[in-house]
């Protein structure tokens, strides 16, 4: 039987006295695309960032295969983040480095590639995301959509097993959203395991294997896109869908 890539057991998160979510249990299987959706303030991004310990949960356990992530020290977490990549809402590129150098940095420092091999891999990844002609440009000269494509290429450079996407299109102009979703769809078709916090209902509906609906300090529902969008199990989910689908 296939083991989960990521597993969460009784995970809770508090900020001071404020409970974000409580006793959450979930698992991600190899090759799955999970879309986490729900109202603003439900703690979706916080949950995602806990999966590779960019945020520390208050209690509970997270496992990457059979390794307990919540017990890892700094060096182990650095290794984990090679396997569990992250694409952020606001790109997080180094402004003082060219596009190719943004990708080469980790290839050299983490993967130990020499300059030539790192450049070759960076160019191949830029070609994959449609930006081969921007290798020598700086992030400030790129559109938001282009910067996000570079950020995806940078994450792919580590050959991750899983990529976490934290609202990857929310900082983009509407006409740029499609480019990013297309790349994510292509990655899904290639079998990449992805956990995506998103407001893009068409992506959630058409690309995901499973929807996690987060609200009221819980993952209230988990299910296939067809079942969730056609027949949500809770009034809270129905209310959410009525609002977002009737905008």
From TrEMBL:
InterPro entries: AAA+_ATPase, ABC_ATPase_HisP-typ, ABC_transporter-like_ATP-bd, ABC_transporter-like_CS, MetN_ABC_transporter-like, P-loop_NTPase
Residue stretches making up the ABC transporter domain: 6-241
Compartmental location: Cell membrane
CDD domains on file: ABC_HisP_GlnQ
GO molecular function: ABC-type amino acid transporter activity; ATP binding; ATP hydrolysis activity
Keywords: Amino-acid transport, ATP-binding, Cell membrane, Membrane, Nucleotide-binding, Transport
Main location: membrane
Membrane topology field: Peripheral membrane protein
GO cellular component, one term: plasma membrane
Pfam families per record: ABC_tran (PF00005)
SUPFAM superfamilies: P-loop containing nucleoside triphosphate hydrolases (SSF52540)
Membership in a protein family: Belongs to the ABC transporter superfamily.
PANTHER family the record matches: AMINO ACID IMPORT ATP-BINDING PROTEIN, GLUTAMATE_ASPARTATE IMPORT ATP-BINDING PROTEIN GLTL
This protein's name: Amino acid ABC transporter ATP-binding protein
Species of the source: Lactobacillus corticis
Lineage: Bacteria, Bacillati, Bacillota, Bacilli, Lactobacillales
